[in-house]
Amino acid sequence: MDLNYHPKDLLAFDRISVVQPFWRGFETVKNQLGLDENVFLHAGPAFSNIEEICVPILNSAAVGAVFEGLAKNLDDATKMVLSGEIILKPAQDFNVVTPLAAVVTPQMPLHYVYDGNHGNQFCLAPINGGTGPAIRLGQKSEEAVKHLHWINGPVLDFMAGGLGEGIELIPIASTGLRHGDDCHGRTIVSTKCLFDELASRVKGGSINSDVRDFFAKSPSMFLNLWMAATKCMMLAAEGVRGSSVIIAMGGNGVRMGLQIAGLPGQWFTEVATPPQGKIFQNLDTNRRLGAIGDSAVVEALGLGAMQISSAPEQIKVFKDVLPQNFEDRSEALKVGVHYDFQEAAPKIGIPLRSSLNFGAGPLVALGIIDKAGELGRIGGGIYDPPLTLFDSAMAALDKSYEQ
Asked: Are 361 and 345 in contact (CB under 8 A)?
């Protein structure tokens, strides 16, 4: 670890580097946080008003309302959101992370991940929707409602049945990194490790064949768990006065935002431009929604696109949109190694000061969603956040010393 970093950033990193994210079970935001039944959680910073809500998140909120039983049909559910009867709030403000356009509802079963070393932090995340009409894709359909019920039925039953006393997540991530994953855009190896571990613990060894096939076709099933693990680590740095280490990052399709350890709870945002990457043939590029999803926390910690050198297949996918300095950027922005990463030992922890010294922030790999809310995922790309996002947060941190 480079001791030339600011002392407050080193302190924040030290706290992050001893967290042991441990998947203990499932919980709901209603039970864990006491949220009202009409409060739904979305990725990224808050919308400034109802009119600003992007169509994919509006669609997912409608799907969530029918799933919860708050609305009889999807059209009524949409009206409830637009009238303010259903309230949308940023998930990360409640120690929750959610991918792309997925909305978290009060009674939805969520992965409960906590710091098994100290027990001071926890984070919740929905079960990954895998293949099919997953809620993260932002499509309003009865198929999306049915798929959400299935994910929180047979898939949940399998995972809960194999979880036992819990699973430590860093060893799985470390194995994945050693064998071609980056812990965000590619989690194939980690997902297989997760499934094999769960399957080995299932009583009697009996696994629903549909669930087995679903995991085999859904290589991103580990991602949501790792998002929660990442956020759990970040939360250990929350409140370190003077630290510029990033502890939150995400987009809502309209604005991209971040938070830093020294100013917890305060979002700094910029307009969310779409990720740069290939989209389906013959589609107008105007169909691309702005950067969306809390999965950006993975890159803000230092993995994903910031560890893409571990994932040669991902480099092939993004070779045309990765900046030439992506390897130098990854090395320059990150502080040091977490104590529990053994099979692979990537550097993690990104202070604003590093980004501003280098002249660029962390690269983020994100799915590209159809702005119209009709086609779901239409591609994937790299989002390179504007330096003004980091400038404004650093200026606020500097100003906090004057108060």
From this structure: no
Q: In this structure, which CATH number among 3.40.190.10, 2.40.50.1020, 3.10.100.10, 3.90.1700.10 belongs to the domain 7-16+237-400?
A: 3.90.1700.10
String of DSSP letters for 49-91: SGGG--HHHHHHHHHHHHHHTS-SSHHHHHHHHHTTSSEEEEG
One fold for 7-16+237-400 and 23-227: no
- Region 23-227: CATH code: 3.90.1710.10
pLDDT in tens, 364-400: 999 999 999 999 999 999 999 999 999 999 999 999 9
> What does the domain layout of the chain look like in residue ranges?
7-16+237-400, 23-227
Cβ 221 vs Cβ 215: under 8 Å = yes
- Give tens-digit pLDDT for 265-293: 999 999 999 999 999 988 999 999 999 99
What whole-number distance in Å separates Cα of residue 1 and Cα of residue 178? 21
Nearest to 133 by CA among 80, 60, 220: 60
Q: What is the 3-state secondary structure (H, E, C) of 208-251?
A: CHHHHHHHHCCCCCCHHHHHHHHHHHHHCCCCCCCCCEEEEEEE
Q: How many CB atoms lie within 10 A of CB 55?
A: 20
Whole-angstrom distance, CA of residue 291 vs CA of residue 274: 5
pTM over 0.90: yes
* CB-based contacts of 132, cutoff 8 Å, min separation 6: 143, 147
For residue 351, list its beta bridge partners.
245
pLDDT value for 206: 77
Euclidean distance between CA atoms 130 and 379, whole angstroms: 16
